[in-house]
Design brief:
By secondary structure, the chain is of the alpha/beta class. The chain has two domains: 194 residues, Rossmann fold (3-Layer(aba) Sandwich); 170 residues, 3-Layer(aba) Sandwich (Rossmann fold). The chain is 45% helix and 14% strand. It contains 16 helices and twelve strands. The protein has a six-stranded parallel beta sheet with strand order 2-1-3-4-5-6, with helices on both faces. Helix 6 links the parallel strand 3 and strand 4. Helix 1 crosses helix 16, helix 2 crosses helix 3 and helix 8 packs across helix 11. The longest helix is centred in the N-terminal third of the chain and has 17 residues. The chain is globular. The model has no long low-confidence stretch (mean pLDDT 93).
Length: 380
């Protein structure tokens, strides 16, 4: 019988969904006969909980990122097993995710792969009460891990780094149940590219430094202010901005006057990020786990700007420790720091070399292979 694999995520930002898509595509490529279903668990809840869990996250990113960082650190603090606050949070989640629980019980699956901790937590609770038997994996999506990713029983964890695996082990996960694979990214990043061909397909000249400005899949952060800062660089640039699904932000950028020394290409959502990264000299972005992993896989230099306190500030630490990025602490100094980097070929080359060393373009395939080879629980 063909392997039946369920991939679960939650639309809290775009990264978790992209990781789920990457695992799904890798599974289909490795085993075309496998039955694979990719589900956003927030599609299996009520509108109020979906807004609270998903939309509220984006609202905090845009309007109160330090509040988000506070809660990130608060939830990472040690708590006794069965802590009342954790029990209450889980009870609220289970109450609002009853349709998801029914979905799990409706069809038999050989294995489940999670790219967000919410479904993993629900499944672990069901398994601990012997209401569910299917094995589950969890693939983390940042360069450090967090207490909320630990949801036992879980048959295996895949982390971005050795440090991420060590942190899970600190919370009691056996070392034998962790594997460092990197963060699952789209299979296209595992394939070699020719920069000249990418330039031609993307309509870029490549006769001057190319700066790629990203704003995440949903187009968050001070996109226009960053763009204006890039345009202040004195040296001629070819600037590509991807505003994601934020159509209003793209319209605002189109109204900004571009100095004659620069050339600009403004995009909304695109599925051509891999080619744009291959063409870029510098990628200017928040350090989300998926975006950062894609940049590293393409061996591009990264300029970190506006990291979200919490997971992205920790991702930033990882990149800086490993010499794969520079960090721009405020938009006022962006033109200065970006210009200095572009004027220093040796430093730029060193950043790209470090990125290539850290890149793990095969991560999705590594997770998918383990899932396909894992022994199945007896089907009900």
């Amino acid at each position: 019988m063909p392997k039946r694999v369920l991939v679960l995520s939650a639309s809290v930002g775009a990264g978790h969904l992209r990781a789920a898509q990457a695992v799904e595509l890798a599974l289909r490529e490795l085993d075309p006969d496998a039955v694979v279903k990719n589900v956003d668990v927030l599609d299996l809840t009520n509108a109020a909980f979906r807004r609270l869990y998903g939309k509220a996250y984006l609202d905090l990113v845009n309007m109160a990122p330090h509040v988000l960082g506070y809660f990130y650190d608060l939830l990472d603090r040690p708590r006794r097993q069965g802590d009342r606050r954790d029990r209450l949070r889980l009870a609220v989640e289970k109450m609002n995710l009853r349709p998801f629980v029914k979905f799990l019980e409706y069809e038999p699956w050989d294995i489940i792969v999670n790219t967000h901790f919410l479904p993993a937590e629900i499944i672990a609770s069901l398994r601990s009460k012997e209401r569910f038997r299917t094995p589950q994996f969890t693939a983390t999506t940042d360069f450090e891990t967090h207490r909320l990713w630990v949801n036992q029983p879980c048959d295996h964890y895949f982390t971005a780094t050795d440090e991420g695996a060590a942190y899970l082990q600190h919370w009691g996960v056996p070392a034998s149940d962790t594997t460092v694979t990197g963060i699952p990214i789209h299979p296209v990043f595992s394939r070699p590219t020719d920069r000249a061909e990418c330039l031609q397909r993307q309509g870029l000249a490549g006769d001057r430094p190319i700066v790629l400005q990203l704003a995440g899949g949903f187009g968050v952060g001070p996109i226009e202010q960053i763009y204006r800062g890039v345009l202040e660089v004195a040296a001629p640039l070819e600037v590509v901005v991807v505003a994601g699904r934020n159509a209003e932000a793209k319209k605002q950028l189109e109204r900004v006057r571009v100095p004659s020394r620069h050339r600009v290409k403004l995009l909304g959502f695109t599925d051509q990020i891999d080619e744009l990264m291959a063409a870029a000299d510098v990628v200017l972005s928040k350090p989300g786990g998926l975006t950062t992993s894609e940049v590293l896989a393409r061996g591009a230099a990264m300029a970190i700007v506006n990291p979200i306190p919490g997971q992205e500030s920790r991702n930033s630490d990882f990149l800086l420790e490993n010499g794969a990025a520079i960090k721009i602490n405020n938009i006022g100094t962006l033109p200065h720091k970006l210009a200095r980097l572009l004027a220093d070929p040796k430093r730029l080359a060193a950043l790209k070399s470090a990125a290539r060393r850290l890149g793990r373009p095969q991560a999705a395939f590594d997770v998918a292979r383990r899932a396909l080879a894992w022994p199945s629980a007896a089907r009900a």
